[in-house]
UniProtKB/TrEMBL annotation:
The keyword Transmembrane applies. InterPro entries: Cyt_c-like_dom, Cyt_c-like_dom_sf, Cyt_c_III_dom, Multihaem_cyt_sf. Keywords: Electron transport, Heme, Iron, Membrane, Metal-binding, Signal, Transmembrane, Transmembrane helix, Transport. PROSITE patterns: CYTC (PS51007). This is C-type cytochrome. Gene3D superfamilies: Cytochrome c-like domain, Cytochrome C3. The chain crosses the membrane at residues 146-166, 199-221. Residues 1-30 form the signal peptide. Residues 31-123 form the Cytochrome c domain. The lineage of its organism: Bacteria, Pseudomonadati, Bacteroidota, Flavobacteriia, Flavobacteriales.
């Protein structure tokens, strides 16, 4: 007699196959969304954002507002769709100031579907990230070192007072009980013995005068030296993010450093070259270059908009501008002449030579002391590049014979003359 196959086994196999198909399809969708994110950032992010209007409208959920067939036609050839008289295309074109959208005939149907899958993902929930206030609270959670030191000082002072009181009590007890013999004499107080010793008095006065002169000279030499000066600016600007993470050249913002005495403060339109389309911070809160929360950085970008009178919703200027009162950090005395172009363009120095590792600074500060001695040492140590420079050809030949060297420093070229910096 033949055995009949188990229906239970067949149902189990069918269930496993269905589970495998669903798992595979879910994984494919996730992979499609991941590819769509890459395509979106490469082709769409310059003009579009997911959750805010930019040069073009916000695109999250666009697949629910338009048909897939229409979106394929619009993305591949928006101009052609407008010319064909499509009502939706013409309306969209007019609503967005008749700014034509770039056509992407190179994108395949699969690429467009991947982009639409990315734009159909639900908006992520805001994450709680560290803020300046929470960071300060975290740093103050432990016991302060100053509190511990203060407690130790109080304890030592109490011990000293107790010892003095005990000594007085013992002396009174000894006097009352006539424990001191007639031959015993009380010792003089230390300060009376010190006054009677003229040698110690003169020596101490000389030492105190020398020490006072030393500290007074050191204090006077610090006047006007603002090393590590780190003021709070009206708009928080992170050099760590701009120059470090994004690799923006210093001279893109401080363009006048190439051809002017001053490096200059960048005008707000330089900021708007990028932030016209970057209205919120998009970096990861877990990145090592991020010191504050996404909300904090986004709020600082809004301060830029408020200053220039930019309305991100309508993508237009309102005409209401406000001055930004930047706080100057590096400031030389009026009797000192310093030319940025001579050092940046002629000498070829990097900005970090004087300003330190600005690409690592969240808040900009004065890295170098900028004193006369610091400048003089730099001129003594820095060799002048005279190779393929006709300007230095003759003077290099004469001075190399005079000093008997092949390479010349800025000091040997007259970099220590008073009139070079003081006039």
């Amino acid at each position: 007699m033949k055995k009949v196959g188990s229906h239970t086994s067949f149902s189990r196999i069918l269930f496993l196959c269905l589970t495998f198909v669903l798992t595979f399809s879910t994984g494919s969708f996730a992979q499609d969304a991941a590819k769509g994110k890459e395509l979106f950032n490469a082709n769409c992010a310059a003009c579009h954002k997911l959750d805010a209007n930019s040069t073009g409208p916000a695109l999250r959920g666009v697949a629910e507002r338009r048909s897939s067939d229409w979106l394929h036609k619009w993305i591949k050839n928006s101009s052609g769709l407008i010319k064909s008289g499509d009502a939706d295309a013409v309306k969209l074109f007019n609503e967005w100031n008749k700014v034509p959208m770039n056509s992407f005939p190179n994108l395949s149907d699969e690429d467009i579907d991947n982009i639409l899958a990315y734009t159909s993902e639900p908006k992520p929930e805001p994450t709680v990230a560290k803020t300046p206030e929470s960071g300060a609270a975290a740093s103050g959670g432990g016991v302060s070192e100053m509190i511990v030191l203060g407690a130790l000082v109080v304890v030592l002072a109490m011990l000293v007072v107790m010892l003095i009181l005990v000594r007085r009590v013992l002396n009174k007890v000894a006097d009352k009980n006539n424990l001191l013999t007639a031959n015993e004499t009380k010792s003089l107080p230390i300060w009376k013995a010190f006054v009677k010793n003229q040698f110690l008095v003169i020596t101490s006065v000389i030492v105190l005068m020398l020490a006072g002169a030393y500290f007074a000279f050191g204090y006077m030499m610090q006047i006007g030296v603002d090393q590590n000066y780190e003021p709070i600016q009206p708009i928080h600007f992170s050099h760590k993010i701009h120059a470090g993470e994004n690799g923006i050249d210093c001279k893109y913002c401080h363009s006048s450093a190439r051809s002017s005495k001053h490096s200059g403060i960048p005008s707000m339109n330089v900021c708007m070259n990028c932030h016209k389309n970057i209205s919120e911070f998009t970096g990861s809160p877990d990145s090592t270059y991020v010191d504050y929360s996404k909300e904090f950085y986004t709020a600082e970008i809004k301060k830029i908009y408020d200053a220039v009178g930019w309305d991100p919703a309508t993508q237009s200027y309102t005409g209401k501008e406000k001055p930004v009162k930047w706080v100057r950090i590096h400031n030389l005395p009026d009797f000192v002449y310093f030319n940025h172009s001579q050092h940046v363009s002629v000498a070829g120095l990097e900005c970090q030579t004087c300003h330190g590792p600005v690409e690592t600074m969240e808040i900009m500060k004065q890295h170098s002391p900028l004193t006369m001695g610091w400048c003089v040492n730099c001129h003594r140590e820095t060799e002048v590049n005279v190779k393929d420079n006709e300007y230095y050809a003759k003077i290099h030949e004469e001075l190399s014979k005079k000093y008997g060297v092949e390479k010349l420093t800025a000091a040997q070229l007259g970099g220590l003359e008073c009139g070079k910096c003081h006039y």
